[in-house]
Amino acid sequence: MFIQQFEVIPELQPYVKLICTMDCEADVDTNHIRVLPDTCVELFVNYTDTAVAIIGNELYNRSIVTFRMSRHSDVQMRKGAGCVAICFYPGVAYRFFHLPMHILADRTLALSDLWHGMAAEIENKLADACNHKARTCIVQQYLLRQLTQNEYDQQVAYCLERIQRSAEHMPVKQLTNDTSLSQRHLSRKFQQIVGLSPKEYLRVCRFIRSLNHLKKYPLLSLTEVAYESGYYDQAHFNRDYKAFTGHTPGQVALATNILY
């Protein structure tokens, strides 16, 4: 598979983490890849007549949106498929899809179910575009059209930034103290905007931190990885890996078909 990354326009840089094109060779499907949860929403806009991917056991023919918050996905891209892929930062996709994120979390939906007739309009324009740079420009202009001007939630934004900057696992109590919100009120805000409760979000972030340690420091023991990532004990570490990957930490470290 050939992946080409492009620049995000300035107006979308606070929201879009990555934009790229993905093209699969015409003679063979890709191998099955297990993609791990990352609390992000990803949009895949199909510009070919080929089905874009098999996710789990379901074939997706057209453009899709994956709300992969806290579950892994088994993905196989179809031969001859091509798409523009957009990855949003955590907590911002709700401004483009106009629905509470908790009802979309851990689901893959056809773009036409969310943007209706506009999905086919975008696909047709991408199919007629002369090159990939033009395709990414077209998609970004549509994203700007969908970007709502609803008020930015400063309290949730603060919590997300605080969590991302922290090198340690943070208790929910710390977030409620910092925002002067009750745990129930903060949880409602997170469910609406992020798609997970603060406790669930913190748990996935700790897991992602451990994946980064596995990748960056291959000589560390798994016990050291667990400790450095903020796990209180090996049992919690192992339990999260089974829940989020279906494998043990050791199996994830050695696997070649797991993407993280």
Helix content estimate: 40-55%
Order of helices and strands: EEEEEEEEEHEHHHHHHHHHHE
**Radius of gyration over alpha carbons?**
19 Å
- Unreliably modeled segments: none
**Intertermini distance:** 17 Å
Number of helices: 11
Looking at the structure, the CATH topology of the largest domain is Jelly Rolls
Major sheet: order of its strands? 1-2-9-4-7-10
Instruction: Please identify the structural class as seen in this structure.
Output: alpha+beta
Number of strands: 11
Oligomeric state: single chain
Shape: globular
Number of domains: 2
Mean pLDDT: 93
Tell me what portion of residues adopts beta-strand conformation.
15-25%
CATH superfamily of the largest domain: Jelly Rolls
List keywords for this structure.
260 residues, alpha+beta, Jelly Rolls, Arc Repressor Mutant, subunit A, 2 domains, 6-stranded antiparallel β-sheet, 5-stranded mixed β-sheet, 11 helices, 43% helix, globular
Structure description:
The protein has 260 residues and is α+β, with helices and mostly antiparallel strands. Helix 3 (117-128) runs antiparallel to helix 4 (132-146). Strand 5 and strand 6 form a beta hairpin. The protein has helices at residues 94-97, 111-115, 117-128, 132-146, 154-165, 172-179, 183-193, 198-216, 222-228, 234-245, 249-254; strands at 2-6, 16-23, 33-35, 40-46, 53-55, 58-60, 64-68, 73-77, 82-88, 108-110, 258-259. The protein has eleven helices and eleven strands. It folds into two domains: 2-146, Jelly Rolls (Sandwich), CATH 2.60.120; 154-255, Orthogonal Bundle (Arc Repressor Mutant, subunit A), CATH 1.10.10. The strands form two sheets. A six-stranded antiparallel sheet has the order 1-2-9-4-7-10.
